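USER:
Make up one protein:

ASSISTANT:
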Amino acid sequence: MAELAPVGTIVKIVGTAGEIASQLYGIGSAIGQAGIEVRLIAMNLKSTSQVLSHLSAVLKSQGRRQPDASRIAEESLNIC
């Protein structure tokens, strides 16, 4: 009977190690996915920046002739 105690402990350790490995794999997968999401956010921010930069140039050249465009731009910037 005393000989079975270490076997039971080893089985528990192996089971726990398996659970930990599974959780670590999940964490690694989540981190990998986060990297993709961060790159997508960066691309969206870059695109938004380019659009706003172009809008700024258009408004500087035509702002007085396009009062609605200026108002819409201001509202959009407030949302950003």
Remarks:
- The CA atoms of residues 41 and 65 lie 34 Å apart.
- The two ends are 69 Å apart (CA to CA).
